[in-house]
Write a structure and sequence with these properties.
The protein has 412 residues and is an alpha/beta fold. Helices cover 28% and strands 29% of the residues. It has three domains: 65 residues, Archaeosine Trna-guanine Transglycosylase, Chain: A, domain 4, CATH 2.30.130.10; 101 residues, RNA methyltransferase domain (HRMD) like (Transcription Regulator spoIIAA, 2-Layer Sandwich), CATH 3.30.750; 190 residues, Rossmann fold (3-Layer(aba) Sandwich). The strands form four sheets. It has a seven-stranded mixed beta sheet, sandwiched between helices. Strands 2-6-5-4-1-3 form a six-stranded mixed beta sheet, with no helix packed on it. A five-stranded mixed beta sheet has the order 7-8-9-10-11.
């Protein structure tokens, strides 16, 4: 076992098999026969036997028929996360290794794996590993844990990743709200191996970026936008480009390097992000891109008031809808943001608008843009509808894995 591990005790009657049975309410089994991996508390009638948080349990119909096997968590609204629909299959080390091998092999088939690059190796439910995200940045892994079952088995999962990927170090990342909802007590930071002496430098689309694995947003970089950054750039030749919520400069640098933009302005509210974006511009000898720290809503309002105009505006805001109850509020925020963006766009300008809120659908975004077009009196033509890069696949049995929407539009 690699250095730095501490044993984790998991209560099970037999390795990988059920400690208890979770019985569904009548007429609640259909989604799980369809292999949706989340069993919400509202679908459960009772638990037979004793199940501690993190235990393997069997999911049964109200008539007692086996449906699937998963991991129990009484602290979460997702009471059971399902992993196998085979009654004879244990959720044990062999299972985890097979799932991880399968996910990693897919990325090789996609042509990823450049030793100087980065990609998502494991995408949670889409790879049958609910609650586990693994990103590779050259020789380091960044592991995001969003389920208690994965957190309790982290030593085992990390040991398998060390064997399969042979990284120099592995960082753990959590999201505060998710960790609280799941009862996860992990601390962010280096979990195994050695830390880099500074940022890890990766190439994407021929552009080099410094990535902060310890404190950068999400796992350090937004790998899901890889192909969208390159696609959007093709519309920017000779345009003045405004990149809002620019983070470390991904869209902005693609606009300058591949898009041949006339000039680029990136704005972000994070001082660290702006510093990193400036460093990345210098790293790539990009002199036409500059970056400013400001609240993006206020900055757009000020630009509109000053009658500043741009040939293209990129909007890549953080998640506005954390749950279904906040969708209406989120759509109002998207509307306001896109309305402000249209106000600073030249006639015939390009709007690249994004949403990473899983609860906001593609149709929601289109209707939001309809409202913006109606209020501004400016027709909006959608040129491309895009999603996450292929290393973030959409699992059709869990449509929640389609979270990223990228719309490339022309505003008349």
């Amino acid at each position: 076992m690699p250095d730095g591990f501490s044993p984790t005790v998991i209560r099970e009657t037999a390795p990988g098999f059920a400690a208890a049975q979770v019985v569904l309410k009548p007429r609640k089994a259909r989604p799980f026969y369809g292999r949706h991996p989340w069993v919400l508390d509202s679908a459960i009638a009772r638990v037979e036997g004793v199940a501690a948080d993190g235990d393997v349990v069997d999911l049964l119909t109200d008539a007692g028929k086996f449906v699937a096997r998963g991991i129990f968590n009484s602290q979460s609204r997702i009471r059971v996360r399902l992993y196998t629909w085979e009654n004879a299959q244990a959720i044990d080390g062999n299972f985890w290794k097979h799932q991880l091998q399968t996910a990693i092999e897919l990325r090789k088939q996609l042509g990823l794996g450049d030793p100087t690059g980065a990609e998502r190796l494991v995408f949670s439910e889409a790879d049958g590993l609910s609650g586990l995200i693994v990103d590779r940045y050259t020789q380091w892994l960044s592991v995001q844990v969003t389920a208690l079952g994965a957190a309790n088995r982290l030593d085992e999962l990390v040991a398998i990743l060390v064997e399969l990927v042979q990284p120099r170090g592995i960082f753990i990342r959590t999201e505060k709200g998710v960790a609280t909802a799941e009862g996860i007590t992990l601390r962010d930071g280096l979990y195994w191996g050695e830390a880099p002496t500074g940022p890890v430098f990766v190439f994407e689309n021929g552009i080099q970026y410094g990535v902060d694995l310890a404190e950068g947003q999400k796992t350090g970089f937004y790998l899901d936008q890889r192909d969208n950054r390159r696609a959007a750039a093709s519309y920017f030749r000779d345009r003045k480009v405004l990149d809002m919520f620019c983070y470390s400069g991904g869209f902005a640098l693609n606009a300058a390097v591949h898009g041949h933009a006339r000039e680029v302005l990136g704005i972000d509210s994070s001082q660290k992000a702006v510093a990193l974006a400036r460093a990345n511009a210098e790293l790539n000898a990009v002199s036409i891109a500059r970056f400013e720290e400001a609240d993006c809503f206020k900055a757009l309002h000020a630009l509109a008031s000053d009658r500043r105009r741009f040939g293209a505006v990129i909007l890549d805001p953080p998640k506005f809808a954390r749950n279904r109850q906040s969708v209406d509020e989120a759509l109002r925020a998207y509307h306001r943001l896109n309305r402000l963006a249209v106000d600073v766009l030249e006639p015939g300008g390009i709007l690249v608008t994004n949403s990473c809120s899983g609860h906001v659908t593609r149709d929601d975004m289109l209707y939001m843009l309809l409202g913006v077009a109606e209020q501004t009196g400016r027709p909006i033509q959608v040129l491309e509808t895009r999603g996450a890069a292929p290393d973030h696949p959409l699992g059709v049995t869990c449509l929640e894995t389609e979270y990223l929407k990228c719309l490339i539009c022309r505003v008349v």
